Amino acid sequence: MSKIKSVLFLGFPNFGEQDLLAPWELLRSLAWTLGQRGEELSVTLGSFEGGTLTTHMGARVESETTVSGSDRYDVLYVPGGIGAGAASLNEAVVNFVRAHHDEGRWVVGNCAGLSVLHRAGILGGSEVTAPATVSRRLEQRGEKVADPRRAWKIDAARKLMTIGGAGTVHPSTIALVWHLFGEDDARDLAATWDTLPLHGESLFALDGPALNDDEAAKTKLQDNWEDTFLPE
Predict the structure, then answer these.
(1) pTM listed for this prediction
(2) What is the DSSP letter of 77?
């Protein structure tokens, strides 16, 4: 049985809907399944702001809890979205992420959420993956980004998971469940949500499939967006 009992999805203004809500939904489904066996898993969407958050496409989402700097969770999940760049400059958010990592808790960053993990100083020592939008700037700032980029990378020793862009959210969540809760629960979840028929055995690995970048398209994304997602 997994020792993971609590997961926080850290919301902030202008987070990306897919980046947070898709894995939140999958893990809430897992929590329901575990509950049928008498096992406990708390999966919470929280924010330092509390109340209603507006996502980067305009949906309004209610925080389930208002986070304080002293709160702790077994897994902290940081999503991306246009607001991730601003979140990476928020001292309370950065300190919260750093504290979880320093205390040996799991930290997961998806898409531009990698900017927050970078500012927290927890990526050094790991080969990570990242969305195309911030991969160049992360490398310029001294981080080791896998080449080719991977859909996800799990560093089990450092309790760190990094995930590419929004298109990698669904399979990477299955990989996270596989590693933290075991293959049986991961396969059940993947079959239920049609992830297994689409992605197959690639779901059950520390490193996700390689991403086939179009270099011209990637450079255009970086030129247009890296100042927003990882501001200097």
Answers:
(1) 0.97
(2) E
Mean pLDDT of 128-143: 97
Q: What are phi and psi of 54, to 5 degrees?
A: -100, 125
Say what percent of the chain tops pLDDT 90: 97
Q: Which CATH number fits domain 6-229: 3.40.50.880, 2.60.120.260, 3.40.630.30, 3.75.10.10?
A: 3.40.50.880
Q: Are 160 and 129 in contact (CB under 8 A)?
A: no
- 216 and 131 Cβ atoms separated by less than 8 Å: no
AA identity, residue 32: W
Give the separation between CA 121 and CA 176, rounded to whole angstroms. 22
Find, among 65, 73, 66, 78, the residue nearest to 15 by Cα: 78
Q: What angle do CA 203, 137, 108 make, to 5 degrees?
A: 35
% helix, strand, coil for the chain, step of 5: 45, 20, 35
